[in-house]
Specification:
By secondary structure, this protein is α/β, with parallel strands linked by helices. The chain folds into two domains: 2-285, Rossmann fold; 301-416, no CATH class. Helices cover 50% and strands 10% of the residues. It is built from 15 helices and eleven strands. A seven-stranded parallel beta sheet has the order 3-2-1-4-5-6-10, with helices on both faces. Strands 7-9 form a two-stranded parallel ribbon. β4, α3 (77-96) and β5 form a beta-alpha-beta unit. The longest helix is centred in the last third of the chain and has 35 residues, at 290-324. The chain is elongated, with a radius of gyration of 28 Å. The protein starts with a strand and ends with a helix.
């Protein structure tokens, strides 16, 4: 078959395209920004009329709509991208006599009238497809999709890799499904003999609590079970509202509402269609993939942790020099170096500004040159103190020896830093 795959450059679209081509079908990639020969440019913010879509369907045997956004960039994006553009595409399919159509929707719980805008807009397009094409079409509603290259999978794998699992008290149940099972279900829907159009739920085979879900994702990364920390019920909704103001954040009020409501459904119809069981979460990846999955997670939060700790050290040092620690005692430390009076005061003020500046740069302008500079400065500080204030080397609290840990932190940042 010649299959128009809209959203071919998205995470799910990439997997669908590979599966369809492996099965011998020709895929016409409908993408927002063409980059390969034969790509078809589509714009779901603009292509809202069937007249736009009809010429594109010449020679097409089947259509898959895998376009979707989790967050709106501007008000009305859900309506245009999830409802109006797909409905125009489905109307053009009906006019052209194309009844093999798969709409990738979303699984969600709740009363239709009270659904989050994301789900409500998806379900409106689902209804349009079923009314326009009464036979041969499939509305596929997958659960939370596991795909190592997917943004949501990376997000939850990162949360799972933390030493302590933060557990929202009111998170719902989930049934994660592997992306390969989704791709196989789409293929089976297109290849089977036409049946009355239907809504097909595709959750994974196991119902998991939020805690068990994250523990399973830890297992996939080769990590042992971690302790958990229950969070107050108000904390995550509040955090979601704050995070919703940052473009690209996966956490927002809508995504939290969907997670809190739960993401479960009936597996039987999909299992019958595939004629095999769906992959269980613990087998989503092989043990040989664990190191790569873990490194992917650590690469997200480890630099933030190291930079945060390093910035805190510089800021607290600046505050201590500025007067948090008695000024007279600070100036007394400079006496062995022959620095007294205004000169010592000026040097202390300069050191205070330097430490505060390094803290700001650590947060705002990280890079390899900054790490090398800080490492050199710490070596100079340590050498000078060991020379004139050797008692600090033997102090039971080890104030100077702790510079070894800071140096190790900087060496790790240098090794992993991608920026100059």
């Amino acid at each position: 078959m010649n299959i128009l795959l809209c959203g071919a450059d998205g995470m799910l679209g990439r997997h669908l395209g590979q599966r369809l081509e492996a099965a011998g079908h020709r895929v016409v990639r409908g993408v927002h920004r063409p980059r390969l020969p034969g790509d078809l440019e589509v714009d779901y913010l603009r292509d809202l009329n069937l007249e736009v879509w009809q010429p594109r369907l010449t020679g097409i045997d089947a259509v898959i709509n895998a376009v979707g956004i989790l967050r709106e960039s501007r008000e009305g994006d859900y309506e245009r991208i999830h409802h109006q553009a797909p409905s125009a595409l489905f109307a053009a399919c009906a006019r052209m006599g194309i009844n093999r159509v798969v709409q990738i929707s979303a699984l969600g719980q709740g009363d239709e009238a009270g659904l989050p805008d994301y789900l409500a807009s998806k379900h409106t397009a689902d209804k349009a497809l079923l009314s326009l094409i009464p036979e041969g079409a499939t509305v596929l509603r997958p659960g939370l999709i596991f795909a190592p290259d997917g943004a949501s999978t990376r997000f939850f794998m990162t949360l799972a890799s933390l030493p302590i699992l933060a557990l929202p008290g009111n998170a719902g149940l989930v049934q994660p499904v592997h992306v390969d099972d989704v791709a196989d279900t789409v293929l089976a829907s297109l290849e089977q003999a036409p049946t009355p159009s239907r809504v097909l739920e595709l959750p994974g085979p196991q119902v998991l609590s939020y805690r068990d879900w994250l523990q399973t994702y830890r297992q996939l990364q080769g990590l042992a079970t971690a302790p958990s920390l229950p969070l107050p019920p108000f904390l995550i909704p509040f955090t979601a509202r704050l995070a919703g103001h940052f473009p690209g954040s996966l956490l927002c009020p809508d995504s939290w509402r969907m997670l809190a409501a739960g993401n479960v459904g009936e597996t039987g119809p999909a299992t019958d269609l595939l004629n095999r069981p769906l992959r269980a979460p613990e087998s989503f990846s092989s043990p040989t993939d664990a190191p790569q999955l873990l490194q992917q997670s650590l690469s997200i939060w480890r630099p933030l942790l190291l930079r945060g700790v390093l910035a805190a050290i510089w800021f607290i040092t600046a505050l201590c020099s500025a007067g948090l620690h008695p000024l007279a005692d600070n100036l007394a430390l400079l006496t062995p170096f022959g620095l007294q009076g205004n000169l010592a005061l000026a040097l202390l003020g300069g050191a205070t500004l330097l430490d505060a500046g390094l803290g700001l740069l650590t947060l705002l302008r990280p890079g390899r040159r900054l790490w090398w500079g800080q490492l050199a400065l710490i070596c100079i500080y340590t050498t000078l103190i060991a020379w004139q204030l050797p008692e600090f080397l033997l102090h039971p609290f080890g104030p100077i020896l702790k510079n070894l840990a800071v140096a190790a932190l900087l060496i790790l940042l240098i090794a992993e830093e991608q920026r100059p």
